[in-house]
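hey team, just a heads up i'm posting the complex here instead of the shared drive bc the drive is being weird again. everything in one block, sequence lines first with there labels, then the predicted structure for the whole assembly after. its two chains so it's a bit long, scroll down
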Amino acid sequence: MSQTTSNAQPINVLERERLVHNNRSLHWITERVSGIVENRQPFLWWVLFLPSVLLSAVLGSCLFYLIVAGVGVWGNNHPVGWGWAITNFVFWIGIGHAGTLISAILFLTRQKWRTSVNRAAEAMTLFAVMCAAIFPGLHVGRVWMVYFLAPVPNANAVWQNFKSPLLWDVFAVSTYFTVSVLFWFLGLVPDLATIRDRCKPGLKKAIYGIFAMGWRGANRHWRHYEMAYLLLAALSTPLVLSVHSVVSFDFATSIVPGWHTTIFPPYFVAGAIFGGFAMVLTLMIPARKIYGLQDLITPKHIDNMAKIILLTGSIVGYAYLMELFVAWYGANKYEFDAFMLRIKDGPYVAYYYAMFGCNVIAPQLFWFKWCRQNLWVVMAVCMAVNAGMWYERFVIIVTTLARDFIPGAWDLYSPTWVEVWTFIGTFGFFLMLFLLFLRFLPVIAMSEVKGVLPQSDPHYDPHHTGKLVENSFKGALPFDATAGLPAQVATAAPAPGIAQDNQFWIRQCNPRIPLSGNGSISLPGNPFTLWIKKK
Amino acid sequence: MSTQLKRVHGYLAEFKSAKALYHAAEQVRDAGYKRWDVHSPFPIHGMDNAMGLKKSILSLFVLIGGATGTVTAFFLQYVTQVIIYPTIVQNKPANIFTLPAFFPVMFELTILFAAFSSIICCFVFNQLPRFNHPLFTSEQFKRFSDDAFFVCIEARDPMFSREETRSFLEGLGGSNIELVEDEV
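-- predicted structure starts here --
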């Protein structure tokens, strides 16, 4: 039982995948990321930038026309007072949530892979919230009176109704935007210092220098900085959950059938994260290719995000089905009819199935590793999700409002050309801001990525890295006389299949294997994992 | 060239890795220096211990900021909704029992005020922004934001000496040792 076995199988040595591929140095990261800001932009940047500026101009013209002519140029009517405007608002505000999830929640849960994607995702958050704010801001009608949303003393001596979810929404969204800006800026400071230190003296250096706040990378500064960053992450985490919950209160606190449900807050938050991750991937997969960032944003990052899309997409699918179940089980006639109109008899049934297909069926492809690693499949699914999340908001808002309690009040809704071009224009505006961000700011959080490299650990030793040996041998493994030690740290003789001239430590074995009396261990025949370390 | 008076800021020494900087910091701490710092492109895990620094007190100020936000939001809503402009909507009360309806805004302002305190305190405690620091006169110091690791022992440290501090830094394995001077 303690003999060296002859039926040993070859050992597959696996290493945990590195976050940054090809053993890149600190300097390489600086060069590659700062280079994007310092060098000329690729041709494709201009190909995307010019149309996006044009579309932003279209957006501006549509808004100008709306302000001059009045909200009647949109297709809103009675009973569908919310139409595309609020659909687009909820769509864009949801997109933003992935940025805060990556920057805050993944920070608190110590997911180090976030460092490569958090900067771009946070930028995306800000731009998405800016696009979102356009719609309710103009939907109020007389946009020059929009300051009535803020609790400031006014000539009418009128105050807002703080019991209304619509006012909560004003506070939630504006807080969300402000805190996201602060968080983003704090993260940018060390990287702006990097660009400042690489510039020649001049206007550019002065501008980057002012925003870098005179950062000197001192540890007495990092100490407060890291605490501030941690606290902002801890504050943003409940904030991001609250924002879409409050958005869902706009619907859930009303008594309209189809809206008046308690499932809305978690369902909206999961959907927002789901749609946001799809947008992050939509932007980052082309960007990593165009700017040669494949060593920083690796297939592992895309794999992780695809898994989050799968998870949140399945939560959303569960919510869709649970809504239907409760509509039936709750025995409320109007609620049940509202859902039957969505799925069977109503005028917008096609939207429901488009939503279901894009949001629930399409992400199921991500169960398969091949699909998560094929960028074309990932992009296709993300595009489906982007569209599907818009359909979801349309289904929630328009199908519900178009068919409420009394058939006499029913009416259909369709957007006008102004609404369509306003919405298309926001995509141009969003893309324009994102391209400008790529042009002027470091797209990857350099200081954070440097901090997760193996050589950044003060206890790093290049000669003592553990290696994972998986399901490697059957039978017994002879030992030095170290019977007193637990199996995790016992000194092992050269194991069969491992080069004979090296000594190894067994660091960890899973499941635990008991030592026998003469100091040998019998490795089980069933699957096990063994961590060994070179002596 | 005019004779320009210069003030010695301190010694700057470069170390080749985060690990070397960490061990150098431990020795500077044990040698008893007080006015010194390390400069690195990223925060190094455990460096606060290696330098003998305590936990940042920033969190206390953020707590105070957050509590200020909660109280502000409560009074903003209570005063406007209950005292000066009671709005009766859908037969909901306009008194202290309206409190649950005030929670969302109280929560949001708590977060907002706490976030502002956190970022403001971070810069105030670090005495930033400061654009004219003597270290910026050093050409090699620019690499701190790229891939270089520095220890800087300042001249105002009581133990500072032109010769001994230099040889001390050399003994720690520092390279490119530079006396950083600032124009007065």
